[in-house]
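In response to reviewer comment 3 from the previous cycle, which asked for concrete evidence that the modeling workflow produces usable outputs, we include below a single protein chain processed end to end. The sequence was submitted unchanged, and the resulting structure tokens are shown without manual editing.
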Amino acid sequence: MRLRRARRAPDRAESLRVARAAPPVTRTMFWRHMPLLAGLLVAGGSALQALTMTVDQPAYELLLNVTLGAGIVTSAVGLRRGRVALLPGAVVMLAALSLFALRFIQLPIVYLLYPPEVIADEDLLLATMVGWLLVAFSFWQTSRANLIFLIVAGLSIFGLMGTINLNVEMRFAFALFVLGAVFCWSYEQFLDLDDRLAARGQPRVADWQTMARGHLSVAMLVAVLTFGLGSLIGTGAYHVSPNLYAKMAREMYSWSPYFNSSRRLFNSFESEFRVGAGPVRLLPVPVMEVEADHAALWRGMAYDYYDGHGWSRSLTGRSEPMRFDGEQYRVSSSFVAPMQHWRAFVQHVTIVGYPGMVLAAAQPEALHLGVMPARRRSWRHLPGFHMEPTTDAYGCISGVESEAAREYTVTSREPLSEAESLRQAPTTYDEELVSAYTSVPAATQAALEPKVKEITADLTNPYDRVRALQLYLQKECAYSLSAAAVPKSQDAAAYFVLHSRRGGCDLFATALAVMSRLADVPARVATGYQTGEYDADKQAFVVQGTDAHAWAEIYFPEYGWVAFDPQAEDQFEDLSLTELLQRGHLRWVLRDAARQAGWVLAIGLIVLLAAAALVDPVHVLRRVWQPRPRTSLQRLSAEYLSFYQGLLRRHGLTPSPALTPQEAMRAGVEALAGRGLAPEALLGFNERFYNLRYAAEAPEADVEALRRELQALRRQTRRR
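The workflow returned the following structure tokens.
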């Protein structure tokens, strides 16, 4: 036992000495390190993609990726020169840490590295700081020991971003990161072993390209398993026990078409209506069918208090059961806005989904349920009924959570909304109504009031002012369900109108309501459903979950609350490049184009890496780019080159591009002879080929004869 330990001690000491004193990378070793830097670029770029895919800041995204590329190029230059460039990475790290500490000070230079949208979210802010550290580490990859810092930083980014965004793109980016990280880790071990061999005086591994392709194959396998098996296992676990991690599992693993993991569900029937919360998904499920003589917006809820981030209902305590007159339920007169110019509008509604809220157009006045009791009884005593229908201070009906609410008829008071009629409406408002429906936060007023005055200048009529604001939003802003979230530190309406100009119906409705209030016109936000598509066979409007909608309601004395839908008709994703540029959406065009190009490049990179793991890319490029032979003698030369190289490879010999065919054949003649081949025939053919190749004139008959001899020689060597 002592003898064994005594023998091992020198080996361990030598190994430690060799590891610490690894020889520097010389010019001849430069290309051996290029796969390592390429892998680091893939790992770092995918981590930064995961960081920026939830942020609508093109300049910030571009700065991160360009700086990462500059860091990798700097490391490559350092490899050529044999030294690490410490200063650029140190400057990036110092700037990232300093501006992180100064993030609460509103300075333009802070927003360059940490945009307001990033500062508003703690996890995103911390992930951004780690992202800048990753970029700083990319400048120091001349030393292979530093790759651990870049990989750990990338893994930290995914850990932080996993709490914010769990969509398919994030999983794809993580698989790409695993590909780069595993390849770098394993290939670095090969380079370290190669350095150990050189330090001991042994020859280096000659075929390093094959080693790189082998490590790339392993990395590809691990990445595929990470993306594929991880999703399968997670999906199976979710379906077996969804209650263990319902929210996260549903967002990350569910394959149901009703759960698009990159978007939140548009829910417009809660007591609080948050707006600008990010990409929205609308469920393609049937909701109801409405038989009516004309189209309308089917309202479910209305909101009056705006806090800068969303809407709430300040009059929730003011509600009472509807009055039953023996045939139908009627809304109390105290909850119906005074109206002198209106018409009766009857709607017969059949609920296809879950019954509950009563959806109706304009101001409901009477409700007739599909199942009515024979005599007056409280609904709570009937089987299947939970409560009586109630009306709130906004004129909305709720409380019928039973099968009886699957079919009902509503009679509404629909205000006359012709433009000339509304222009002639009185301009004197009730003081209590003005106080409740024209108030906005001070920050919102300071940001949007100049823009409102600019749009409504010289307009004295309330209708004209609201109409001008509506047209402005429809022209200048773009509708999109994929718009990023409004930063938590920003007012939703101001950010939408002045900065992003891109969002869903919630932001359009909020902007019009808030700007109308700033124009001294009472306004609120209503939510429900759009008209839907008219079905001629059913003679009804068919409403689906994709018709969920929000709009603004403007109050006109003697007319009541009139619906104004400011949403742009054209969707952002459907607009042409010319239309986007005309509307001033250049930054979004560039950002989306850059992201699409990034994903195309990422997919192309994976395909190229997979191909490189199977074939030698250098050999393929040489075969593709080498000039085609034009004369018969040139074609004979190409065939002979392919013959002798293939012959050497089949017998375990590596043809060197530095040797001529004659030198290569003579160098391997002994090895070939040991395998039963006649070296005289090979050398004789080689001599005749050289005489013809470098002769003053090569007759066509001699070339064809030598080609036939080459074909015979090829068949002979294959049989052996």
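DSSP finds 25 helices and 23 strands in the chain. We consider this sufficient to address the reviewer's concern, and the full set will be provided in the supplementary archive.
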